[in-house]
Amino acid sequence: MRALAAAGFATIAAAHLGRQRLAALDVTNAASVAAMAASVGDVDVVVHSAGGAFGSDRVEDGDPEGWKAMYDVNVVGVVRVHQALLAGMRRGGNAHVVVLGSIAGFEVYPGGGGYTAVKHGVNALCRTLRQELLGEPVRVTEIAPGMVETEFSLVRLGDRAAAEKVYEGLTPLSAEDVADVIAFAVTRPPHVDLDRVVVRPVAQADAAHVHRR
Predict the structure, then answer these.
(1) Are 122 and 105 in contact (CB under 8 A)?
(2) Residue 51 and residue 115: Cα distance in Å, rounded?
(3) Sign of the four-CA dihedral 119, 80, 57, 212
(4) Is the separation of the CB atoms in 139 and 96 below 8 Å?
């Protein structure tokens, strides 16, 4: 949000309950999404950032309920918010849909079956939106980061020591790095659409290959 505000946007934070916010939002709850949409009115740029992974089990050991929960947040959540805000975005005449995906949307790795399947769904959703909104003044951008040091690994693994080990021996991306990329994408001229931006730390070649000092 700070990066967008610095770029001249009037920003509205929509977050899960319990965080500092201007608009409360639970993307898995249709009533919450409707209330958020009513409170914010028409917007020109929407950054879909809700997501996360639950667990790192092999497919044979995976919890189907966890897979469904990931799908509801990462994919269906985008659908709910998009449906709620699209009419207002169209009225503005220069709108931009930004979806925070992942390199897991086009790569796979052992223990990531649920998360990669979900993020592949996010990637497919973004490409579908690009086709469905063709001819309208609505840009669609998927931002696909690699390793970013946020609460992601802590939520996924449930253990701080294990989460810190994920980034051991390398310099991962920061949330600010990704925010800068989002700000760059939405400040391009209206005829320029960055369809998908992949951003990784220098130490990461792909989801399965990382160089550690």
Answers:
(1) yes
(2) 10
(3) positive
(4) yes
pLDDT at 161: 78
Kindly state the tokens that stand for 27.
């993307």
Read off the pLDDT of residues 19-47 as tens digits, 9 standing for 90 and up: 344 567 899 999 999 999 999 999 999 99
The string over 78-87, giving b where at least 16 C-beta atoms fall within 10 Å of a residue's C-beta and e elsewhere, is bebbbebbbe
Neighbours of 31 (CB within 10 A): 8
Tell me, what's the pLDDT at 19?
39
| 167 catalytically annotated | no
Distance (Å, whole) CA 159 – CA 137: 44
Q: How far apart are CA 134 and CA 105, in angstroms?
A: 22
Separation CA 183–CA 196 (nearest Å): 14
Q: Which residues contact 46 (CB under 8 A, 6 or more apart)?
A: 81, 82, 85, 89, 95, 96, 97, 98
Rounded to the nearest 10 degrees, the angle between the axes of helix 113-132 and helix 77-92 is 20
Cα–Cα distance between 199 and 176 in angstroms, integer?
12
* Residue 46 backbone dihedrals phi, psi, to 5 degrees: -120, 125
The DSSP call for residue 62 is: -
**Catalytic annotation, pick one of 71, 109, 115, 167:** 115
Report the residue count for the chain: 213
Short-list 116, 115, 100, 117, CA closest to 196: 100
